[in-house]
Amino acid sequence: MKHVLNSCCWIVALATVSGAGAQAQDSKKQYPKQMEMEAGMSEYWVPQPEVVTIAEATSDALRPAPSDATVLFDGKDLSKWQRPDGKAAAWWVHDGIVTVDKSKGDIQTKDEYRDFQLHVEWSIPKNISGEGQGRGNSGVYLHNLYEVQILDTYGNETYVNGAAGSLYKQSPPLVNPIRKPGEWNEYDILFTAPTFTKDGRYRTPPIVTVLFNGVLVQNSTILQGTTEYIGFPRTVVKETGPILLQSHGDPSEPISFRNIWIREL
Ligand code: MG
Questions:
Q1: Disulfide engineering: 65 pairs with which of 15, 23, 78, 261, CB 3.0-4.6 Å?
Q2: What pTM was estimated for this model as a whole?
Q3: Ligand 1 centroid vs 135 CA: distance in angstroms?
Q4: How far is the CA of 221 from the centre of ligand 1 (A)?
Q5: Burial classification of residue 16, based on how many CB atoms lie within 10 Å of its CB (0-12 exposed, 13-18 middle, 19 or more buried)
Q6: Which residues have C-beta under 5 Å from ligand 1, the single-atom ion?
Q7: Average pLDDT per block of 10 residues along the chain, 265 residues long
């Protein structure tokens, strides 16, 4: 077959270089008809995408987990979570939600993830007090390194790159779609993990997209490194990591979470 193809190519090549005189002769020659393109030639049908289903939204969840998600918190227990030191997670699970216990510190998933879609619902208590960063502060840390900020920014001003929906100290949210204290907010976070060169630099940086109550607030934002409270972003060579929920040290009333799920990509 290869030999036949090569012969065809030679014929085409010779016809191309044979000059104007030869062209007049060639106009009488009958070449094989070329196949015309049809729409179906550039369409393919397999593999078909897997069907996933989404339950009807209830008062217990703004966006119920699709069938292919790993549920990290379903309102019953913290069996998928632990403290960073490996001890049992001990925040207050009640009424289908979990409330931060600031005396117990952060909690993080037992499992690690690379690229993912993460859904988290969170609520600032109705009786929240404090101001600026000291009002309902928490956060979702991707790989335990990159914080998507949680804060009550409903009528509460703070530095924009530390507002709810910011990638802390790196990228302010595009808009502020927060609901008022006592209501539930949702984050849908898409994370593409970084890759690294052998000498420990980013080959490709971490990339984050965030929908905040269904509204885009981070659009494929490129992180410069870790989200530091003080100082510059650092490059930490790690391609997988847990999801961490922050227990912030401010004295305001603790926030709550519910309906947390993840889809690995
Ligand atoms: Mg925070």
A1: 261
A2: 0.84
A3: 10
A4: 18
A5: exposed
A6: 137, 139, 246
A7: 39 40 61 86 82 82 95 97 97 98 97 98 97 96 98 94 96 94 97 98 98 96 96 96 96 97 98
